[in-house]
Amino acid sequence: MRPKAEIETFASHWVAQNVRGVPGGANLSLELDSLASWLTRDARSQGISGSELNRVVGDIDDYLAEQIRLQSAAG
After folding, report:
1. 60 and 15 in contact (C-beta within 8 Å)?
2. 1 Cβ partners below 8 Å, 6+ apart?
3. How many whole angstroms separate alpha carbon 44 and alpha carbon 67?
């Protein structure tokens, strides 16, 4: 099992590279599904399981929705 800090670092770097604010009218559910799939795929490629990712960030869809909200507010 990877250390929590390592998974947090991976997730924050991944978000910085891949999550952008979603323009109004965009299908947030579709965007979340796509991002969640990419995030878990990339995590697995780094040896981080989906359950490890979930343990650290919580529900992946909720985590990504919050990241999108933060990006939209900043942009």
Report:
1. no
2. 52
3. 20
